[in-house]
Amino acid sequence: MGLTGIQIFKLLPKTNCGECGVPTCLAFAMNLASGKAELDACPYVSDEAREQLAEASAPPIRPVAIGVGTRALKVGGETVMFRHEKTFYNPTGLAALVSSDLDGDTLDQKLKEWNALQYERVGLNLRPELVALKDAGAGAEAFAGAAEKIAKESEFGLILMTEDVSVMKAGAEACAFKKPLLYAATAENADDMGALAKEMGLALAVKAENIEGLIALTDKLTDMGLKELVLDSGAREIKQLFEDQVVIRRAPLKAGNRSLGFPTITFPCEMADNLDAETLITTMLIAKYAGIVVLSDFQGESLFPLLLERLNIYTDPQRPMTVTEGIYEIGGPDENSPVLITTNFSLTYFIVSGEIEGSRVPSWLLIMDTEGLSVMTAWAAGKFSGDLVGAFVKKCGIADKISHKKVIIPGYAAAISGEMEEELPDWEIVIGPRDASLIPKFLKDMA
User: Fold this and answer.
1) How far apart are CA 125 and CA 351, in angstroms?
2) 320 lies in a domain?
3) Domain check: are 228 and 107 in the same one?
4) Is 241 in the same domain as 96?
5) Does a structural domain hold residue 318?
6) Tally of domains within the chain
7) Cα–Cα distance measured from residue 205 to residue 201, given in angstroms and rounded to the nearest whole number
8) Burial 370-401 (b: 16+ CB within 10 A, else e)
9) One digit per residue, pLDDT tens: the chain, 447 residues?
10) Boundaries of domain holding 249
11) Cα(427)–Cα(143) distance, rounded to whole angstroms?
12) Do 88 and 27 share a structural domain?
């Protein structure tokens, strides 16, 4: 498991050069031990020490990368059973299934439709990441052709699904530049599939009939030198799959069982006969540790809620999502435009700014740093009090941009208006609506 700061310090060059961003190697070692720094920040660590540190400090569940570049998907790398203990790091990858015997035009249409399924939420672009190509028995050439087409003509990462090593080799060679995941090594083909994955430097999924079978296979493959593995326990019934997911997560974290210290891949597409049922199963799997989920299709009405669930679960609960404090222009405001103020909690900002934009009333929006708290929470915590808000209005520079002295505060914070009037005696404090959805009407009525 992890090394202590002193153990790490013994492997560092001890130059105290400061190039890592902290003044001493001991401080850097302590940061490494607590997960606040990356080993690559030290330019002078030896290759031998780097290898020792990388192995010793590897998370209990190894991270596995699929794809390349900015669209690469990383799964695994988790360190806790429950999100509230610390955080979950690498979100569940969402994949849709296609068959290798699908004609080119139909595949083109699917890829086009799936690629359009992207959603803007709190400043983030939410989208699925993977396409799982399943061998339909049409031969190695058809499999390789479909794999190459998906790799070259879409931004999706690839999962290649076949237990025929010759077909897998053709498909992997056709899209090797995209670093696909090979699915799957089984008890029957593990030697050949492992050799192929090792030769091509690709991640390999391992499929067994139960947990015991997985342990035997992963031990065999890791002895061959393979480290990037993804696990499929073979369960296709909800209760058993749930139990397997918990066991696979718990074993490396609580019992130090490295044989199961890898992310998982799951197949709701093989567990239900309609996308609605698959979506329900997927909601459980996102919450309960699945590294990758394979669905039969992507459709907006099922995909969007899954993306939101994933965003919520894989957001650090100890660090609220925030936007930068400052003055935001919405709709090209001028000196006569209204001024509104709210907190820097991301969701608050994007909801309020969206409603202002929808009103078509050009406005100034002041965002005050409240450490990522919403209006009500920040007010209750004393971080959105009248004197603090008034001081912010004075120092932010909005007075230089407008010809009036009127500021609109959230209705939920109406109690701060008196203190604001004391802090801003020459300003008019206007109490806005309690609900953001009423902002457009409010602004239009003011105008």
Assistant:
1) 16
2) no
3) yes
4) yes
5) no
6) 3
7) 13
8) bebbbbebbbeeebbbbebbbebbeebebbee
9) 457 788 889 989 999 999 988 899 999 888 887 666 778 789 898 888 887 777 666 678 999 999 998 889 999 999 899 988 888 999 999 999 999 999 999 999 999 999 999 998 877 899 999 999 999 999 999 999 999 999 999 999 999 999 999 999 999 999 999 999 999 999 999 999 999 999 999 999 999 999 999 999 999 999 999 999 999 999 999 999 999 999 999 999 999 899 999 999 999 999 999 999 999 999 999 999 999 999 999 999 999 999 999 999 998 887 778 899 999 999 999 999 999 999 999 989 999 999 999 999 999 999 999 999 999 999 999 999 999 999 999 999 999 999 999 999 999 999 999 999 999 999 999 999 999 999 999 999 988
10) 64-313
11) 70
12) no
Task: Give the residue among 292, 225, 216 at the shortest CA–CA distance from 257.
Answer: 216
The answer on 393 and 269 residing in a single domain is no
Burial of 156 (0-12, 13-18, 19+ CB in 10 A): buried
Task: Tell whether 150 and 286 lie within a shared domain.
Answer: yes
Please indicate, yes or no, whether residues 157 and 215 belong to a single structural domain of this protein: yes
In the listed set 266, 282, 313, which residue is the last one of a domain according to the structure?
313
Tokens of 243: 């139990």
CATH number of residue 148's parent domain:
3.20.20.20
